[in-house]
Amino acid sequence: MSRQRDTTPPPAPEPLPVQAVDSHTHLDACGARTAADVAAIVDRAEAAGIGRVITVADDVESARWVVQAAGWDERVFAAVALHPTRTADFTDEQRSELAALAAQPRVVAIGETGLDYYWDYSPPVAQQEAFRWHIELAKSLGKPLMIHDRDAHEDILRVLAEEGAPETVVFHCFSGDVDFAKRCAAAGYLLSFAGTMTFRNAGYLREAAALVPEEQLLVETDAPFLTPHPFRGRPNEPYCAAYTVRALAEVRGVSDATMAGILTANAERAFRLRSVS
Fold it and tell me: 16, 23, 195, 275: which sits with the fewest CB atoms below 10 Å from its CB?
């Protein structure tokens, strides 16, 4: 008999003393459809100390929606790209529409793009070709590149080196060990930590989070996925980023306020949030 999944949302955390930014979430996958839905989710986040969010697309339809959602609420920003698992048939029409959406002022990053060798939905060659296209798009628009990296560390670094990385590169939901974190940090890339770093079997992520230079740290939820411990498996939302902020503060030996302030400053700098109209 299979265990029934707990669909109860995690309790609201104690509010952070300083507001932070959820640098990667999926509001549409969290169930948002309308402006009222978006406002309700972000209201819950703000009450927990997560004052702004970046909602991320994984296909063209989602890209249209996140751009619209970013226009509904000044606390919401967007990122657009075609997820690597969806690149088996990446058409010129899709490229043209994504490029136009990516140029919108409230789109603050190109993502999530990259490589995913865990799932067998798209051949590696097709993924790498799409990844290179997104790298060029990010450079042409002067916007950060938001990377999805699953079981593809070496090829991600190789393609970035071959193409020439954009000025700002963010490893969304960083999944590497200490050595990989050091290599990414040395290249100047930002590492974004999700609820995965709180999982019991993720000591390697906590070690990595402890050594990354503070100016290269970000926090995210990847909601509705990757809910922090002890609520793993339950539905995630941006408000739960507060749990991960506190976990980062603990592994780095600083106060919650200090950690939240660092993360906010990094997100504002990386995504130029203060200059978005």
Answer: 275
Question: Cβ neighbours of residue 84 under 8 Å, at least 6 residues apart?
Answer: 113, 114, 115, 116, 122, 127, 130, 131, 148
Residues 6+ apart with CB under 8 A from 40: none
Query: Scanning the structure block, which residue is given the tokens 């609820």?
Result: 195
Q: Report which residue type is found at 5.
A: R
Residues 6+ apart with CB under 8 A from 6: 233, 234
Q: How far apart (Å, rounded) are the C-alpha atoms in residues 261 and 150?
A: 29
CA dist 249 and 257 (Å) reads 9
Helices (H), the chain: 35-47, 60-72, 92-102, 124-141, 153-163, 178-186, 203-211, 241-252, 256-271
pLDDT tens per residue across span 182-241 = 999 999 999 999 999 999 999 999 999 999 999 999 999 999 999 999 999 999 999 999
Evaluate if pTM is beyond 0.90.
yes
